[in-house]
Amino acid sequence: MPELPEVETTRRILEPYLLGQRIQKLLHQDPARYRHTERAEGRKVLGISRRGKYLILQLDQGLEAIIHLGMTGGFRFEPHRHTRVTLVLPQQTLYYTDPRRFGKWWVVEAGDYREIGLLGRMGPEPLSPDFTPVGFKQALAQTRRKIKEVLLSQEAVAGVGNIYADESLWLSKIHPERPAHTLSPAEVKRLHRAIREVMGQAVEAGGSTLSDESYQQPNGEPGYFQFAHKAYDRTGQPCRRRGCKGRIVKMVVGGRGTHFCPVCQQNSR
Questions:
Q1: Fewer Cβ close by (within 10 Å): the C or N end of the chain?
Q2: Beta bridge pairs of residue 252
Q3: How far is CA 215 from CA 18, 79, 98, 155, 161, in A?
Q4: Distance CA 203, CA 192 (A)
């Protein structure tokens, strides 16, 4: 958390407040975590985009501000007890909050991502035309890692984190420990379709909010996709697939808590 749907929701809400505005001050007390931010002061925001889980502010004079929200990062329109960065604009002040302090900021020359290596090797956006079944199949065929680990790596497809990997694997009936290269063409197509469906629905629902200190939209509203979860955070509850008698179990895959139905997501190869 936050993953692509939460970051995209944040981008859409912030865009009208940021676009065309000049950053007057960018205040914080952690230069090791929020790097080179003094370079953004006095710069106009020409655009706000997203790549995977990263927000990217295009600034004038060839700079970009890259923001990774970490596990608990987000923006607010009012001061918050966990405010870490204050972004002062001519007619608005935005407050970046992060209770667990895992988020990071960088201000870099546009396209210079040497400090942010993942941006340079990230896979296609799941809701873009670049994310194709053929390309996805080629990426999975090249690795013996477990499919859940591959999805989390961001290299086969961008922006899929723990929640939406579990949801996509549930929807496609694929066990999270299946070696990626063993997926059949039909399974790859199902997973490709599931990722697009889950991500699209989650974006429209404003993402998922799991607790009071987890992701919220900048206006203070929660996301609502958690009410549609089929696997994530449903340990011990009945599987929601029609006709399935299983219950959701939790295990660890790639160091991450992983939720799935052992009845309809069997580890057959």
A1: C
A2: 257
A3: 20, 16, 9, 24, 14
A4: 17
Tokens of 206: 């404003």
DSSP 223: P
87: helix, coil or strand? Answer: strand
Pairing of strands 256-260, 104-109: unpaired
Which residues 6+ apart lie within 8 Å of 254 measured at CB? Answer: 146, 148, 149, 152
114-146 pLDDT tens trace: 999 889 899 999 999 999 999 999 999 999 999
- 188 — phi, psi (to 5°)? -60, -45
pLDDT in tens, 135-181: 999 999 999 999 999 999 999 999 999 999 999 999 999 999 999 99
Its pTM stands at 0.94
Residue 1 neighbours by CB under 8 Å, 6+ apart: 71, 72, 161, 162, 163, 208, 210, 214, 215
| Those residues with Cβ within 8 angstroms of residue 41's Cβ, 6 or more apart along the chain or in another chain | 23, 24, 25, 26
CA 236 to chain centre: 26
Tokens of 72: 């608990």
8 A C-beta contact, residue 247 and residue 261: yes
**Measured distance CA(144)–CA(182) in Å, rounded:** 8
